[in-house]
Amino acid sequence: MNEWLLAQAPFLPPSVAAVMVILFKIVLIVAPLMGCVAYLTLAERKVIGYMQVRLGPNRVSLLGLDFLRGWGQPIADALKLMTKEIIVPSGANKFLFLAAPIIALAPALAAWAVVPFGAEMTLANINAGLLYILALTSLGVYGIIIAGWASNSKYAFLGAMRSAAQIVSYEIAMGFALVCVLVAAGSLNLGEIVEAQRGNVLTWFWLPLFPMWLIYFISGVAETNRAPFDVSEGESEIVAGFHVEYAGMAFALFFLAEYANMILIAGLTAVLFFGGWLSPLPASWGDWPFIGALVGDGIHWFLIKLSFFLFCFLWFRATFPRYRYDQIMRLGWKVFLPITIVWIVVTATAVVLELPPWFDRA
Q1: Partner of 148 for a Cys bridge, out of 26, 65, 167, 242, CB 3.0 to 4.6 A?
Q2: Which pLDDT tens digit goes with each residue over 44-58?
Q3: pLDDT of 286
């Protein structure tokens, strides 16, 4: 793909053409991602509406078409937020107050640079991709802490402290879960991790690392401050949490960061435990005429898996009540952390013994 794009601009110097290719690929990733973030808010309201036997958004139409009633709601919400005034509280640190939403959103977008959408579909195919993901996703907590502190509000600061403690607690369990994936695949490269799962549904890492993918996904729900782990935004306790003083697009960036992180966690779950772009159907089916491209490996399988895990995020919100804060801390430190440490030993033992079909490196 890179060679084809470079060939389209023979009149440009090679260095300039390479930069243009990278910028083009960034736009190809970020533009659809921001559209998905916007319409994920509509999907959430629709899904929860159906689960609660109500309609959800059904007024703002798209292109004036009746069967798209409600589809214009994210666009209307964006226009509303862009026209609202951003009020900086008196006594707040203005620079940090305005920088915090950007710091919260940027890592969620930058992490997609190493996520493989297909066999040759990735922005940066680096060997330390998993390490890059861990480093970037760890930065999101700084935006939350800075927002709570810079707001000069006790409610925002309390929400920031709750959220920071929760994120740090569950990030440890997530990190250990990813260590198991690293040990099982023998690589930090996300593409090689997917290839290590090649075979069939039973050779994907969800089966030998079953407790780890559960812990990783549940920790991801906690990392994104989603229900039932949304105590940092518990309206009945601390108003709206760390972003209580934000309005307009500054608030919208926190909103976008939350949903962008949801998509990232869902995508990483698909890549690390469910074979990424690999097809769940027998490989021989890919040779069939006409439908071979659909049943064979491809980006469509990655998107289907990602969409399923996103649906689980919405399902959890409509199903579970909010946990108490002490219950959340207990789950992270006294349940998830010991299980991940034990499973690292189990996985390492299986790799040393080369147990087939998952850990046989021959």
Answers
A1: 242
A2: 999 999 999 998 898
A3: 66
pLDDT score of 311: 95
- Looking up tokens 């027998």 gives 282
Here the tokens at position 307 are 């969409």
Q: How far apart are CA 225 and CA 231, in angstroms?
A: 8
Helices (H) then strands (E): counts for the chain: 15, 0
Residues of the chain with pLDDT under 70: 1-14, 234-240, 286, 292, 361-362
Q: What are the angstrom distances between the C-alpha of 187 and each of 7, 128, 180, 195?
A: 32, 8, 11, 10
Provide the phi-psi class of 266: left if phi over 0, else alpha when psi is between -120 and 50, else beta. Answer: alpha
pLDDT in tens, 289-319: 777 678 888 899 999 999 999 999 999 998 9
Taking only Cα atoms into account, the Rg of the chain, rounded to an integer number of angstroms, comes to 22
Alpha-carbon distance of 18 to 9, in angstroms, equals: 10
CA–CA dist 144, 161 (Å, integer): 9
| Torsional sign, CA 246, 248, 253, 258 | positive
CB 105 within 8 A of CB 144: no
Length of the chain: 362
Record the pTM. Answer: 0.91
Tokens 């300039």, residue? 16
Helix (H, G, I), strand (E, B) or coil at 62: strand
Taking residue 252's Cβ as centre, other Cβ atoms within 10 Å add up to: 19
Give CA–CA dist 127/151, Å, rounded.
40
Cα–Cα distance between 167 and 175 in angstroms, integer? 12
What is the separation, in whole angstroms, between the first and last Cα of the chain?
31
Q: 212: closest CA among 48, 78, 339?
A: 339
Residue 306 is inside which H or E element, if any? Answer: helix 299-319
